[in-house]
Amino acid sequence: MFQSMIDSNTALPEVQKMQYLISALKGEARDVIGSLEVSDENYVEAWEMLKERYDDSDDVLKHLRALKALKRPTEHWDDLIVYLVTSRLDQKTSRAWEVTVKKGEVPTLKQLTDFLAQHSKALEASSRMIRPTVSASHDKGGSSKAAAVNLAIDNNKCAFCLKEGHVIYKCYEYLKLEVNERVKEARSRKLCLNCLRDTSHLAKQCTLGPCRKCKKRHNTVLHWEQTPSKNSVAVPSESSTNAQEKVVATIVSDANATRINKQVLLATAIVKVMDIKGNAVLCRALLDSGSQSCFVTNDCARKLALRQYSTNIPICGLGGMSTETRKAARISISSRINNFQVNLNFLVVKNITQALPTNSIQMNEVQIPKGIELADPEFHKASKVDMLLGAEIFLELLCIGRIKLAPAQPTWQKTLFGWVVSGNLLTPDSKQNGTTCNLVTNEQLNLSLKRFWQLESNERKDTRSPEERVCEEQFIKTYRRNDEGRFIVSLPTKDERLRKLGDSRDIAIRRFKNLERRFEKQPSLKEEYSKFIHEYIELNHMKEIQRHSMR
Description:
Blueprint: H1 2-7, H2 14-24, H3 28-32, H4 40-53, H5 60-69, H6 78-86, H7 91-100, H8 109-129, E1 134-138, E2 145-149, H9 172-175, H10 179-188, E3 262-265, E4 268-274, E5 280-287, E6 294-297, H11 298-304, E7 308-316, E8 322-334, E9 341-349, E10 387-389, H12 391-397, E11 398-403, E12 411-415, E13 418-426, H13 443-456, H14 466-478, E14 480-481, E15 487-488, H15 495-500, H16 505-521, H17 523-538
Parallel strand pairs: 5-10, 6-9
Antiparallel strand pairs: 1-2, 3-13, 4-5, 4-8, 6-10, 7-8, 8-9, 11-12, 12-13, 14-15
Helix pairs in contact: 2-4, 4-5, 16-17
């Protein structure tokens, strides 16, 4: 169809045919002509390159045609090109090439391209004859089958997110999953559960070492700490069963079933509070950005003998629960480790929360970074909270510095009071008594109110364009805040426009080298250019990109 409508149309100029050709291609076919610029002269070259490629020609022709398009005298470069190409051949192909070269004869480029074309045809023909190895296991009744197909995996590409530059057991998206989900994803991709790289062997056949925690035959990121229970979930080990050939899944929805023992730590700090006589008293404070006000308990206020003044402020909590506080006090708090001091207004309440953490934990269950000063040295002991510091002061307390030592460990955040710890902690013996939630609902009233608003409200139509919806979804999925407090979000791109760029790396390198040659001829220009670049770096208008972050 392309030949009849575009290629054979004499009314169209060659450059326009070239543009139509590029827009009609995608994937590997588009990469074949990606090194050619859009011009009248290159259309015929591009068409011939596609015919050569998909008539089983080799990639060397693509680069030779690209050089010819640049008007380089490649017909006189036989010795150089033959040497460059043969020096990059693998051992088997190089041996086959040496066999075809007669003794004492200097090989030509024509001989090399003919050899590569014939050799590539032979390799493609032989690869089509190879069938994947399939092993099937049947149960006694012969009614169920499980098959494992050995496939090749690119070790430089993550098998989970399909991005290059890291392996699956270092993938951020993969490590965010629960352990049982990681096992499920690895099995669905037929990966060895020990190395998480290969599909050609089982974990019991893997030559790499076992789990660093339990020494069983599974990867350390698949290790699952659990307490013994009647309804237990299988640890991802293949010492007794062939997990890639036969998978038995047990789903337990019973209240007594084994689960990941998870306790959430909240950020607490020991602060100095000035009493009525000006003496410093140590109190335990909870740092909570979800509160608009600061609170202090009655017991703590009495201990400090604070001067309280009357107030009448409604307090609304979770689920719409509301109450009122009638007393408030102004309190001076300061840090134990530096000169930070601030005066804040506190609302006096009977109780702030239950003892934190919910249950005491063992210190050896928490990984503490070396060389840090804890804001609450006894954060692991369940004890009462004297005061709550809300959003009024919360962000001002944060400093640059955040550490997370392991996926199953909480996060350490540097503050003016020291390092606080907060987040999920997976422990083998934590006893979660429950989550306190002061929630009261009137189901009948809620249902009536819901129906009222459904009748009164007009249905809103989504007037956003598809591109606007994609942009919003990308913002929601990718935006985050870094350790410096800056918000980071991935910018949307249009893939079809990026593909139009083609293989522009060679052009960029060529222009860069031309600029360097110009600098050699004009030292003054080089000096002014260097000053300009260094000024941009000093002003933080640009910075060097690390090699590992290049995609």
